[in-house]
Design a protein that fits this description.
The chain is globular. It has a domain at 1-235. The chain has helices spanning 2-32, 36-55, 59-75, 77-104, 106-113, 121-134, 136-153, 158-177, 183-207, 221-252, 258-293, 297-324, 326-334, 341-372, 378-401, 405-430, 438-469, 473-498, 503-510, 514-519. The model is unreliable at 509-520 (pLDDT under 50). The longest helix has 36 residues, at 258-293. The protein is 85% helix and 0% strand. The protein is an all-alpha fold. The chain is built from 20 helices and no strands.
């Protein structure tokens, strides 16, 4: 019951943040569109978030939380508090120097991240200004990650889960209340939100009985252990983030708007990726680890098959729907103000291209736990390096050499995702750790068939609904809701008829079969 309550708490705040995030993006599109100011702001927002994976919730959290939680369990709160304070002092010192250096070197960093902006001096200068305003956000959000690790170790999840909501509220408030809406105001809102998140969790730590001070930085054995554990995580995060650097850098070489089109499309594509990929990957790791540890290879293979099957059942129809309905979705959510029909069409191409890689991105999250369960963290990183190299070659080819522009960049990202997923699958099979069982061999083709048939239905319905998709906001929203509902119903029918899933399983997985739940 405690676990369920914790999951519900985190999930509820995460969903709230996602909804507010879409409201934020809709307002940003309305006021900034996909012009030079939007391009500059999105690059300025991306740069501190690029390093966030190194210093915050990525490598740092993965190393800090196990040590801190273990110290609480074995040594008590006071030693754990001292370690957290030492880590916070060291992190603050390192990040203060790092942020200061980046503030000075911002133009040089942007020549790497957005080299194409240099051809437009005003746009480049604006991006430098906005980046210098947003960069302190890295310091605050990294300290927030440490404070969140402290609270989560104490099983106090609500305050940490609510912190992303503050960023969206600050940006939404700025978009609604500040006039004129510009990149400078939004950039200050980002940094102010980071400070608010830090203060929020500082108070929450105090209420939890673990107020953290800032002692003089010291190089202690515990910190040495923390840094040693962070090493592989930093390397892995660097490989992953390099894909974003490559995509953004090449997009900056394209005409104005390319960075914004990719940003809006990626934000929509991230929703099913976050919900399905993280959920399934997280769910299968504990049983998979137990089965591997006890030598139950047959059970491990079955767990992986069911995870793969469930991921595809939820992701393939979502990918087809995003590809087919890219224009209606974007028109309903974003087409207003500075984001007009041209921007909708341009972004729709990128969304469809990203959607093609959605199943691959989710499969990576489902297949990687099979390596982690066997204490192999190196292989996924090596495969990711190959995928990054492929992404670089394909991005330069499709985005620059061939006339596909920003859609080519999205295609390259999706292709690299498939290379990553298929390589992981092949390595697991080669090592004898995975094989498709009879059920998966039967059901996966049926899932693909049901998804394609659903796509045909959506294409057929989109034609008569086209006048409503191009009408006023209410009509667009109604048309989109009708298309989504029809797609869900069509896939459910085709999945049941073709045997991609049976009724009892759908009820159990979606939480609709109440009788079965009562019997359990």
């Amino acid at each position: 019951m405690a676990l369920l309550r914790s999951v519900a708490t985190v999930g509820g705040y995460t969903m709230m943040s996602r909804v507010l995030g879409f409201v934020r993006d809709m307002l940003t599109a309305q006021f900034l569109g996909a012009g030079p100011v939007a391009d500059a702001f999105f690059v300025a927002l991306r740069l501190p978030n690029l390093f966030r994976s190194f210093f915050a919730e990525g490598a740092f959290s993965a190393a800090f939380v196990p040590i801190f939680a273990g110290m609480i369990a074995k040594e008590g709160r006071q030693p754990a508090r001292l370690f957290a304070e030492e880590a916070m002092a060291a992190l603050t010192t390192v990040l203060f120097v790092f942020v200061l250096a980046c503030e000075i070197a911002t133009p040089a960093l942007l020549h790497v991240l957005a080299p194409g902006f240099a051809a437009e001096p005003e746009k480049f200068a604006l991006t430098v200004t906005l980046t210098r305003i947003t960069f302190p956000y890295l310091l605050f959000i990294s300290l927030v990650a440490l404070q969140g690790g402290v609270l989560n170790s104490l099983e106090r999840f609500a305050a940490t889960a609510a912190t992303p909501v503050l960023l969206n509220l600050f940006l939404i408030g700025t978009l609604l209340l500040v006039r004129p809406v510009n990149g400078v105001a939004l950039s200050w809102a980002v940094t102010a939100a980071g400070f608010a998140q830090f203060v929020w969790l500082m108070v929450s730590c105090g209420q939890a009985g673990l107020s953290l001070r800032f002692p003089r930085p010291r190089w202690t054995p515990a910190l040495k252990r923390l840094v040693a554990l962070m090493g592989p995580g930093i390397f892995g995060a660097g490989v992953t983030q390099l894909n974003l650097v490559v995509s953004t850098a090449v997009a900056s070489l394209l005409p104005t708007g390319a960075v914004s089109y990719l940003y809006y499309a990626d934000r929509l594509n991230q929703l099913p990726l976050a919900v399905v990929g993280i959920a399934v990957g997280t769910a299968i790791l504990p049983p998979l680890s137990r089965q591997v540890r006890t030598g139950d290879e047959a059970g491990a293979v079955q767990t992986q098959n069911r995870g793969l099957e469930l991921a595809l059942l939820l992701t393939v129809p979502a990918a087809v729907a995003l590809g087919v309905l890219a224009r209606p979705i974007l028109a309903a959510l974003f087409e207003r103000g500075a984001f007009g029909p041209h921007e909708v069409v341009a972004t729709a191409g990128a969304l469809a291209a990203y959607a093609a890689g959605l199943p691959a991105f989710v499969l990576v999250k489902v297949l990687a736990p099979a390596f982690f369960a066997r204490h192999d963290t190196k292989t996924p990183v090596k495969v990711a390096i190959v995928a990054v190299a492929a992404n670089l070659v394909l991005t330069l080819t499709l985005g620059v050499a061939l006339p596909f522009a920003h859609v080519g960049i999205a295609c390259a990202t999706s292709a690299a995702g498939w290379i990553n997923a298929l390589a992981l699958l092949w390595l697991l099979h080669r090592r004898g750790h995975f094989r498709l069982d009879a059920r998966s061999r039967s059901r996966i083709p049926r899932i693909l068939a049901a998804s394609l048939l659903m796509g045909v239905v959506l294409v057929g319905l989109e034609i008569p609904l086209a006048p409503y998709i191009g009408a006023h906001l209410v009509a667009r929203l109604v048309a989109l809701v009708a298309l989504v509902a029809a797609g869900l119903a069509a896939f459910a029918v085709f999945a049941l008829v073709l045997g991609a899933a049976d009724r009892s399983e759908l009820g159990q997985r979606l939480g609709l079969d109440l009788a079965a739940r009562r019997r359990r």
